[in-house]
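Problem: given the chain below (193 residues), write out its structure.
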Amino acid sequence: MGVDPEASTPEAENPEASLPEASPAGPKPLNLSLPAHLEAILYLKGRPLSLSELAAIAGVDNDSAELGLITLMADYAHRDTALEISQDGHTYGLQLRESLAELVQNLVPVDLSTAALRTLATVALKKRILQSELVELRGSGAYDHIKALLAEDFIERRRQSDGRSYWLSLSEKFHRTFAVKAEELQPRPRRSA
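Solution.
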């Protein structure tokens, strides 16, 4: 977004004045402002969304969604709150401020073994992996790790349509709990010795 949220324009001072009404596909509930509607969408989805996804869900065009998002981001920047709107590439999410990471660890400790966390990291790096492939990579103990990760709701499991195995992928709870950015899930190149 190449727009300065601090810029003083009539639209920035009163974003409601220039925003079109929501389309029938996505009416604004309870006459909420568009920024409040976008905030609700980000909260309820629990994962980062692109501008076009936000616009489609809100039932507005991309320009209106961008203006509403800029207003929302500026509002959060001036509030004394534990939440923030984060931008990761072309996606936007509602999350706890990064400065609260230690508090999160103290209040929401993840009760998983190191081996289960490594299995979770493997799923995170692959983004989507067959259970049989994961067991091949991590060993037969991965079955217990998968059970623990499913019980904690960090992964989702769906039956493979043309086979006997399951597809494993990250859940929305994983993204809310760990707030891992997409580029952090990319394998890093190995350094030659």
